[in-house]
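Example record used in the benchmark description.
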Amino acid sequence: MTMDWEIVFEHRDALLNGVEMTIFLAVATMAFALPLGLLVAQARMSCHVFLRMPATIYVEIFRSTPLVLQIYWAFYVMPVALGIRLDAVSTALLGLTLNVTAYNCETFRAGLVSIRRGQTNAALALGMTGFQAFRIVILPQAVRRVLPALASTWISLFKDTSLVSVISVADLAYTSMHLRSQTFRVFEFLSVMAGLYWLMGYPQAKVVDWLYKKYRVTE
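Model output (structure tokens):
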């Protein structure tokens, strides 16, 4: 088998554009999913059933169904069922955000319930309001505890962005597969795709390892 790496170099701009789209989807998704995950976690912990029940149903649905199915549903079913039609990139961002928000919700909820109730009572005894106690005392400790788990979710999200290729979003996976089908250079483009994902993912994995060591809970 002869290999032609020059053809990869000729299409470097398209590949780099795919890398940019992958990074954009990951960053934008997490930027939305972090605050939304915290809000849904608060709703799941609410004493009001009209907040707790919808939040619970939402989380269970999105954690129990495949992400690729959720992307397909948003792209093909949502326009018919709800009359909402978005372009491919917006649909991909919506599907990824809804999925990651559900996982972030459970991560935040685990962190929040791990903080002793006595700390809230102590803050209230010092004259803080409930919101001040949450913002100043509880939330910073919870975030510190869940930071490694959130970082792991980020790694999974970064890899899962490749699933948006099923609705023709020009991320790295879609671009590589498209060039492969155009040029019939399977080995070259799939190898470059794997190499680019590794170059972007490996440093992030090392950061996650560091976060686990630094912020792991020992008590």
